[in-house]
Every structure is written in structure tokens, then in C-alpha cells.
From TrEMBL:
It comes from Streptacidiphilus jiangxiensis. GO terms for cellular component: plasma membrane. This is Magnesium transporter. It is a multi-pass membrane protein. CDD domains: TmCorA-like. SUPFAM superfamilies: CorA soluble domain-like (SSF143865), Magnesium transport protein CorA, transmembrane region (SSF144083).
Length: 324
């Protein structure tokens, strides 16, 4: 599956032409070509790389999945690896889609490792791109990076909202909600770890792209790339703070559970003390010894009143000490 676009002086001139015509259009002045490949066969992609003069290591990294976000520079081009992210339907899991980008002076080649990455949304951003005095590969790359970083931002915002919901459930007494806090906290923690692995290296990627010696970002586009870099920093800091908040939430949840257990043990102990008083009295007179009033009605009434009075006295004392 391949998609192609040809821009002349920043204006879309042709779309959907054969991949074999890419090198012919690249020979034109003021022409920029975009080539998108989705899960290409290694042999076919190697042929494209040979035609465009791409380094074999860049071709290898572009085809094989599992690359970390990075920017590698070669003599005539750069290789960029990044991830698009989204939140799964369960509201707590993170879905990542890997994309590799090969950047030359007048061509942008995107290689999607997964068909789930919505490249149409990136194309829509290109069509809405701001009018600048520097149309070219840098502008297309900006639209792609802006889309990826906005996805990171949306994911961290979503996880922030979910953590706030857990915080509200933390001090409720229902057993089902206690279990929900524990399960969702663990799942959110795993998702934030995965998100951190995606967003943290992007700081170095975007910062390296803005280096003047690379020549990828012309001066008119620098403010746009600085805006993307600012968003990357905000997402990174937000992710780090959420990990700290979630760690505190998990520790607080454990403390709340321990306090609840202490309260339960305190109540059980208090009730056991109350029950022990009548048990001791009746047990003592259960021996083969006659107690005062033995065989008399008044003796039974007195022993019953003593049991009730002592039990009530202990109950009131425990209530005052907040043991019940």
C-alpha cells in the first residue's frame, strides 16, 4: 500500500502517481514529494531506498518495528522514528502506532509499521497548513510532528482526568469501588510508563531537528517547531508529574486500607471485651457453687442487671474513646 503526493512551490500538483515516478519528479526544481508506505516488503522498500540513495541502516530501522523515538543523521538524509498514541476503549490502556520518517532535501518518506495509524488526519493537517515563505519538506514534517505531539497531549490529558476520578473514589467505603481503585491504578501506571517511553525521547528529537547545521527547518518555520518543542516539554513534565501523583495515590490507598483494617480490629476487640464480661460472670457461676440468690428469682434478676450494666458501661466507655 503506497500513497504519493507532489508539491510544486508549496502547492499540491499531483496525487496518487506510481512509486516508480518519484525519482523523476524529484529532479524537477521546487518539487517536493511525499511517499507513504504501509508495512512494505523489505525487498520492495530496499529498491525504493536504492533509487533514492538511502542508507542501508536507515532502511533496516524503517522496516523493523520496535525502534525507540530517535533522529539519525546520514550524509544526504535523516531518519526519524516516532509514535502516535491513543487511548484504548477501556479508558486506561495506551495504544501506540510506530512510524518511521526518512527526510531528504526534497522528499518525505513515511513508513507505517501499523495500518492503524490514521495518515489521513496528517494529510488533512497538511491541507490546512499555514501559508509560509518556506514551503517544502520542513513544512510537511511540521504537520506530521504536530499531529503526533497533539496525540501525546490528548493521551496525557485523558489519563489526568482518570486519575482525578480515582482520587474521588479513594475514600469511599464500597468494596467494589476499593477494588476498582486498585485495578485501575495498576493499569494507569503501566500506561504512563509506556507513554513516558514515547514522549521523553521526543525532546531530543525535536531539538535536534532545529539545529541549523541539519538544514531541515528553514528560519521561517522555526517558530512553528519551537511551538511543537514547547508542547513536547509540557507533555513530558505532565507525564512525570502524573506518575508521581499516581504513586502517591497508590500509597494513600494502601494507607487507607491499613487504617480501615485497624478500625475493624479495634471494633472487633471492643465488642469482644463487651461480650467477655457477661461470659465471665455466667461462666464463674456456672461452677458447682451456689451464687448469692441461688434458686431465687431476685438472684437471677440481680445477676442479669449486673451483666447489662457492665456491658452498657463498657459500650459507653469505648464510644467515648472512639473505639466503636
Amino acid at each position: 500500500m503506497a500513497r504519493t503526493r507532489l508539491y510544486r512551490s508549496g502547492v499540491l500538483a499531483l496525487e496518487g502517481f506510481p512509486v516508480g515516478d518519484v525519482s523523476r519528479y524529484l529532479a524537477e526544481p521546487n518539487a517536493v514529494v511525499w511517499l507513504d508506505l504501509c508495512q512494505p516488503e523489505p525487498a520492495d522498500f530496499a529498491a525504493v531506498g536504492e533509487e533514492l540513495g538511502l542508507h542501508e541502516l536507515a532502511l533496516e530501522d524503517a522496516v523493523h518495528a520496535g525502534q525507540r523515538p530517535k533522529l539519525d543523521s546520514y550524509r544526504s538524509h535523516q531518519f526519524l522514528s516516532a509514535y502516535a498514541v491513543s487511548v484504548a476503549p477501556d479508558d486506561v490502556s495506551l495504544v501506540t502506532r510506530e512510524i518511521a520518517v526518512l527526510i531528504t532535501a526534497n522528499a518525505l518518506i513515511t513508513v507505517r509499521k501499523d495500518a492503524g495509524l490514521p495518515i489521513d488526519e496528517v494529510v488533512a493537517r497538511w491541507d490546512r497548513a499555514p501559508a509560509t515563505s518556506a514551503p517544502g519538506v520542513g513544512l510537511l514534517l511540521y504537520g506530521l510532528l504536530d499531529y503526533l505531539v497533539d496525540g501525546h497531549f490528548a493521551a496525557v490529558q485523558h489519563f489526568d482526568d482518570r486519575i482525578e476520578e480515582l482520587d474521588e473514589l479513594l475514600f469511599r467505603e464500597e468494596r467494589r469501588q476499593i477494588q476498582e481503585v486498585q485495578q485501575r491504578s495498576y493499569q494507569l501506571r503501566k500506561s504512563l510508563v509506556r507513554l513516558r517511553r514515547v514522549v521523553l525521547p521526543m525532546r531530543e528529537v525535536v531539538n535536534s531537528l532545529m539545529r541549523p547545521d541539519l538544514g531541515v527547518v528553514p528560519e521561517p518555520l522555526m517558530p512553528y517547531y519551537r511551538d511543537v518543542y514547547d508542547h513536547v516539554l509540557r507533555v513530558t513534565e505532565w507525564t512525570e508529574s502524573l506518575r508521581d501523583v499516581l504513586t502517591s495515590l497508590v500509597e494513600t490507598n494502601l494507607s487507607v486500607q491499613a487504617n480501615r483494617m485497624n478500625m475493624i480490629m479495634k471494633k472487633v476487640t471492643s465488642w469482644a471485651a463487651i461480650i467477655a464480661v457477661p461470659t465471665a460472670i455466667t461462666g464463674f457461676y456456672g461452677q458447682n457453687l451456689p451464687y448469692p440468690g441461688f434458686g431465687q428469682r431476685w438472684g437471677f434478676l440481680v445477676s442479669t442487671l449486673v451483666i447489662v450494666a457492665l456491658s452498657v458501661l463498657l459500650y459507653v466507655a469505648f464510644r467515648r474513646k472512639d473505639w466503636l
